[in-house]
From TrEMBL:
<dbReference type="GO" id="GO:0016787">
    <property type="term" value="F:hydrolase activity"/>
</dbReference>
<dbReference type="Pfam" id="PF02230">
    <property type="entry name" value="Abhydrolase_2"/>
</dbReference>
<dbReference type="InterPro" id="IPR029058">
    <property type="entry name" value="AB_hydrolase_fold"/>
</dbReference>
<keyword id="KW-0378">Hydrolase</keyword>
<feature type="domain" description="Phospholipase/carboxylesterase/thioesterase">
    <location>
        <begin position="67"/>
        <end position="199"/>
    </location>
</feature>
<protein>
    <submittedName>
        <fullName>Alpha/beta hydrolase</fullName>
    </submittedName>
</protein>
<dbReference type="InterPro" id="IPR003140">
    <property type="entry name" value="PLipase/COase/thioEstase"/>
</dbReference>
Amino acid sequence: MLKHFFHNSSESDQVFLLLHGTGGRETDLLSVAGKVDVSLSVLGVRGDVIEDGRFRYFSRKIDGSIDEESIRAKTIDLLDFLNQAASIYPFNKKNIHLIGYSNGANMAVSLILHQPEIFKSAILLHPSHPLKSFKEARLDALDIFITAGARDQMVLPSEAVQLKSHLTNLGARVSLHMTDYGHEIRDSEITEATKWWNKTFK
């Protein structure tokens, strides 16, 4: 199985699936999950692709662009892992909420497009638009919150706008929060994500 950790909640059968950014670990987004909703279980997964000694969920091409063959293959691997995890840990496989940052946010988008029926929502922190060609999926049951930085030097803000349009056209209810900062996660983003969560699910 992929390297991971699981924290069980006695209050809910819903679970946050945490997907870190490049160079991160499976525990990186624990504080984000705790601020958004402490009542859910948490499953953090470490990417198993190593680039310059840093963990990622899928490979990039030499020019730095996303390797779509890699992300599709690794998406299937992660979905297989979720099947295994659901047979071991006490969470409802159809009550998964995604929290992903950067590389992990891009993987979250791919998961949604490949198997939308097992996900309830996604908080996507600084994603790009990972799949230019994709299998059509209906996302009518999904609520999605996206953040982007107006001064992000790694991902153009327009990528988040395009992603919002793409996901909305597939039926998802999508909110976009733009900051005046770069690629880093700001406290204000998590505050806005928490407000969105409370409005959507409380």
